[in-house]
Structure of Aryl-alcohol dehydrogenase-like predicted oxidoreductase:
Amino acid sequence: MRYRLFGQTGLRVSEILLGTMVFGDQAEARRIIDAYADAGGNVLDTASAYGDGEALLGEILTRRDRFVLGTKYTLSRDHDDPNAAGNHRKNLTRSLEQSLRRLRTDYLDIYWVHLWDRHTPLEETMRALDDAVRAGKILYTGVSDAPAWVVARANTLAEWRGQTPFAGLQVPYNLLRRDIERELLPMAEAFGMSVTAWAPLASGKLTATAESNRVDPATLTPRELAAAEAVRTVAEDLGARPAQVALAWLRSRSKAVLPLVGVSSLAQLTENLAALDLVLPQDALDRLESAAPFELGFPGDFIAECEPAPFCFGNAATRLDGR
């Protein structure tokens, strides 16, 4: 296992993150975490809305300081209480207190905004998060499932006001769902943020033709079937498993991307970790991407076409070495 820096910080995080949302059996969850740690993994991800997930993790987690522990807030703690959800200061404060109790710790390494709340001013959220950092209850912050302009504005506000910016972005990303390449990924790269990619196997769709899979291939669209077949074929050619191919493709996209794998068994974890040793050749990458076509759309495709054209930037455009 190798390590990356988390955003524009000095925090070292492993190149694969472990999601705990699907943990069920306590004994198996303990074995998974131990094996992950033995392999060099150090990031555990949960959320206040993951049922009893925080409490289960708090019960079994030993060597607390060995791990980079992260959880999320925003989603409702009480559906009858209008202030038990959202990104405002009251819900942040109460959710943080609840998560600290459940996880049996006095601080969180990463505290994530789980979802953009359009009714709470970004100024309020960023100040409340910064206050929690200054109080020592959280060390770093991240944001999940928000538009690029929201994240960019939030980090710009934090920069101007000397507050803690978001160091990480958590979004869905896989061969079938590449929407983040339009705005979110370029924005994160520009701000130096880490991108933790959830659903890297497309909720099992990319391994739907593999044995003992919970996704019925009959429920997939033609595009999903084509992608799953391409993943299976590449895996057979390389002597790998489909999950490993899907994760290796994701890891090839950007140095900022960190796959967030959710497993319910030690066998799944072992299979996923083996993706770290797999480097896909160019012909395999081409085969995978041609099976699930993706259009960048405006303005990305327009800018890419215009950039080398003399009409846009002159005759020296193709001879300019950028950053």
Observations:
- The two ends are 29 Å apart (CA to CA).
